Amino acid sequence: MDRKRLGILVGGGPAPGINSALSAAAIAACDAGLEVIGIYDGFSHLIQGRTDQVTRLEVADVSRIHSEGGSILRTARHNPTKRPEDLARTVQTLRELGLDYLVTIGGDDTASAAAHVAHESGGTLRFAHIPKTIDNDLPLPSGAPTFGFETARQLGTTLAMNLMEESRTTNRWCLAVVMGRKAGHLALGIGKAAGATVTIIPEEFPREEITLDEVCLALEGAMLKRRAMGRKDGVAIVAEGVAARMDPKELASLPGVEVHYDAHDNLRLEKIPLEAVLERELVRRFAERGENLTIVPATLGYLLRCAPPIPFDIDYTRTLGFGAVDFLLSENPQDRDRAGGIVCIDTGRLRVLPFTEIQDPETGKIRTREVDVLSEHYKVAREYMIRLEREDLEGEMLEKLADVAHLDADTFRKTYLPAVEADFRNA
User: In CATH, what class is 155-304+388-426?
Assistant: First the structure.
């Protein structure tokens, strides 16, 4: 009897723990008597109808890769759902490879693509998706993180604390932009753990579209309040997702910014040097008041994605990889809603969320998990930041703030009132 075949591919950006998840799934499949086929570069070759960019995986090939960063199968962002013919060709190529099952490892875009491919296959191919992203923005139950997030947060926190020492030593501000295309989980996690002076995330702004002025007001207000409290140093953490919610026309008008989109129609944030944009604008604003401001800009992005996973992510991904294969071999293939899903841990137990349960019914895309700004997690983080508050715009603190900003009290209040009015706690 021919052995059944299981394929594994990785999509989207790298995240710590990919090799561990891949290893666990491959070993579980081999132990179950399946033939395991690793597919290189995500969906990219499948879209083209190529069946040669694959490799057979045995236990010996993957048994010791669980502690390594990166991906032995590499990864890519190609979108098999971009055109109907691409989707059909992807399914046909998977069939030509003789696959019965497919494990996909990736974030929201890869999960959405897997859901569409699973539906297009008509249930003849069974899918299990292992949720991976340092952005932590997939809607997993019980607040479970996506794998890679905890490793990225730990390394990012170490780097942010180094910036804090740089700031204290040189008596100036450092500004670090942190990855997080749609949500501010990583920026907030790093800022909160490192004790950064201020952290800015897209979820804190009440309107869907964010302006550069709003971001700069929040940062400038924190800097001025810090001065009023007797310090000229500080570290600001900013989630790159604030740029994703800016008007593309405003972004395109800024020097050094190119507006491009990826295969999933996401704004290519790596083309937007947000740290340089914010540095330039803040320096300009302080110069208008006759002050020279020096800011050290940094980006905590690519440094985090291929780091070796910490034990938490190794442990986590080994369970997810095993769970993916267990689901594929044990569920009823006739149940169309259960033909594919996302493997997760819910209150300590493995669970598979059907794709249909977490897809937007209108777009078919996987919903985004954003930071809940009304949660204790965010409120505590906010409590330990230095930011302008409504009560700062009156009394003795207002006089101190106006003095360090070289403005009269009424002008200061009028200028910075929008920053406190945007605070969700004043809604």
Answer: alpha beta
